[in-house]
Write a structure and sequence with these properties.
It comes from Pseudomonas protegens (strain DSM 19095 / LMG 27888 / CFBP 6595 / CHA0). With 101 residues, the chain is of the alpha+beta class. Helices cover 43% and strands 32% of the residues. Strand 2 (35-40) and strand 3 (49-56) form a beta hairpin. It is globular and about 35 Å long.
Length: 101
């Protein structure tokens, strides 16, 4: 299993836009074969940092998801909204191997 950890720098004045985007991506990841562990939005502390975690059985499955997402109408629309509205300023993606009981 491979887990993708994403750290977002977001526009804190567009938190509602980011939250709507996040809810939609959870469904996209699940529909395209992944397990989404959720988004974690600012509460106390920094108001412009958010995180998400999602997993795929393998890196190859993650890469297949990325290819599918390029032509998936919902994911294409979500990316277009980010570009247009600019509520995500930057992001960092890391891949981890979970240690589960």
């Amino acid at each position: 299993m491979i887990t993708c950890h994403v750290k977002y720098v977001i526009d804190p004045y567009q938190l509602a836009e980011f939250e709507a985007y996040s809810k939609a991506w959870i469904a996209v990841v699940r529909r395209l074969g992944g397990t989404h562990h959720g988004y974690f939005l600012p509460s106390e502390g920094a108001s412009n940092i958010a995180y998400c975690l999602f997993s795929f059985p393998s890196l190859a499955d993650y890469e297949a998801y990325r290819q599918s997402a390029l032509s998936d109408p919902e994911s294409v629309a979500l990316v277009a909204a980010v570009v247009q509205k600019r509520f995500i300023l930057s992001y960092e993606r890391s891949f981890m191997r979970p240690l589960l009981s």
